[in-house]
Design a protein that fits this description.
alpha/beta; Aspartate Aminotransferase, domain 2; Aspartate Aminotransferase, domain 1; two-stranded antiparallel ribbon; 14 helices; 13% strand; binds pyridoxal-5'-phosphate; transaminase activity; PyrdxlP-dep_Trfase_small; pyridoxal phosphate binding
């Protein structure tokens, strides 16, 4: 069988295996000292004042909304090109997601579309850092400040990333990160919430663990009182030390893994530059650097994206599609009024987008294999 390159694969080494094993042997596998230490390391890495490790990015988005007091009667502006969790968590908070279109080249939330969607009920904007490239957070911050709105970053794709002198969580009220298996850093499942305000972060922490005023580690430590109070109807979103131990090792390699992703992106950009009609993702600039979580190409007119993906699969290349816009899904079409709007950029992009393999464990031969297969399949598809 010839070479197979999957769409994504985590980079798990001896350090991760040893770190998780040490927690398993320690006698405490729940949320405890390792999670606290990992939180401190993320706070230092991101320069974030308040951080909370959680068991998913979805949990981080949900808690951001709850802790910022967003609920029934509120509208939250969300790009339609995103994963369903970005808008579903708004619904779980009891608020209404208002879908808006994205910018043509980068597929990031369109700031002018956000401005047009504002109503007296708007309470927040969730900016998605699509594919790992940060949305225009400085423009969004100004807009939110002018209208008294909260700015939340869905940074599931962007760790690390930088734009205009800031990083995810730098100027927003809250930022939510994901450590799902395919993400730039992974703990299999996991999430991180950073918040600007200490009181909101404290609310999020209580809500993340049943609304109980003391965490399990404090209650179950030898000699400590087992009694506690319940101060809110909480959730169960905390990250256990087994996952934090894995994540702490991943954080140690965050910059090296991003550098490898950037090398892969640079190689693809060079190898695919002259393919007619193919739109490549934007390049890094000194003020806009991606995590390179995804390498999303947009196919030229007249090509059948799913047929191209199937043909690449036959060449041993895994691909994915990011994203079918939310307004096209049956739930949003029937239950979310804004899904009836016009989203010309998202609709057009959805017919063209294809995500190529990009993960730090790829070898140079893997990169070459993917680039050669993409050239061959696209040249055949356009009949050259
Ligand atoms: C843009 C975006 N937001 C939120 C999430 C949810 O993260 P998680 O799977 O960790 O809950 C994901 C991904 O999986 C995502 O791609």
């Amino acid at each position: 069988m010839s070479r197979q390159v999957p769409f994504a694969a985590p980079l798990i080494g001896a350090a991760e295996i040893e770190a998780v094993t040490a927690v398993l042997r320690s006698g405490w596998i729940g949320t405890g000292a390792v999670t606290a230490d990992t939180e401190q390391r993320f706070a230092d890495y991101l320069g974030a004042p308040h951080v909370l490790l959680l068991n998913s990015g979805t949990a981080a988005l949900h808690l951001a909304l709850l802790a910022l007091g967003i609920g029934p009667g509120d509208e939250v502006i969300v790009p339609t090109v995103t994963f369903t969790a970005t808008a579903a968590t708004v619904l779980h908070a009891g608020a209404v997601p208002v879908l808006v279109d994205v910018e043509p080249d980068t597929l990031r939330i369109d700031v002018e579309a956000v401005r047009r969607a504002l109503t007296p009920r708007t309470r927040a904007v969730v900016a998605v850092h699509f594919a790992g490239r940060m949305a225009d957070v400085r423009a969004l911050r100004s807009l939110c400040d002018a209208h008294g709105l909260r700015l939340i970053e869905d940074s599931a794709h962007a760790l690390p990333a930088e734009r205009d002198g800031t990083v995810p969580g730098g100027i927003a009220d809250a930022a939510a990160f994901s450590f799902f298996v395919t993400k730039p850093l992974t703990s299999a499942e996991g999430g991180l919430l950073t918040m600007a305000d200490g009181d909101a972060a404290a609310r999020a922490r209580v809500l993340s663990a049943h609304g109980i005023d003391r965490d399990a580690f404090a209650r179950h430590s030898f000699g400590r009182s087992p009694h506690y109070d319940v101060v809110a109807p909480g959730l169960k979103y905390n990250m256990p030390d087994t996952a934090s131990a894995l994540l702490r090792c991943q954080l140690d390699q965050a910059d090296a893994m991003r550098a490898r992703r950037r090398d892969i992106a640079t190689a693809y950009l060079a190898a695919l530059a002259d393919l007619p009609g193919l739109r490549l993702p934007p390049v890094d600039t000194p003020t806009d650097t991606s995590s390179w979580y995804l390498f999303v190409v947009q196919l030229g007119d007249g090509l059948d994206r799913d047929a191209v993906a199937a043909e690449l699969h036959r060449h041993g290349v895994g691909t994915s599609v990011h994203f079918r816009p939310l307004h096209q899904f049956s739930y949003y079409r029937t239950e979310v009024a804004s899904a009836a709007g016009e989203f010309p950029v998202a609709d057009d992009a959805f017919t063209r987008v294809l995500s190529l393999p990009i993960f730090p464990g790829m070898s140079d031969e893997d990169i070459e294999h993917v680039a050669t297969a993409v050239r061959a399949v696209l040249e055949q598809a356009v009949g050259r």
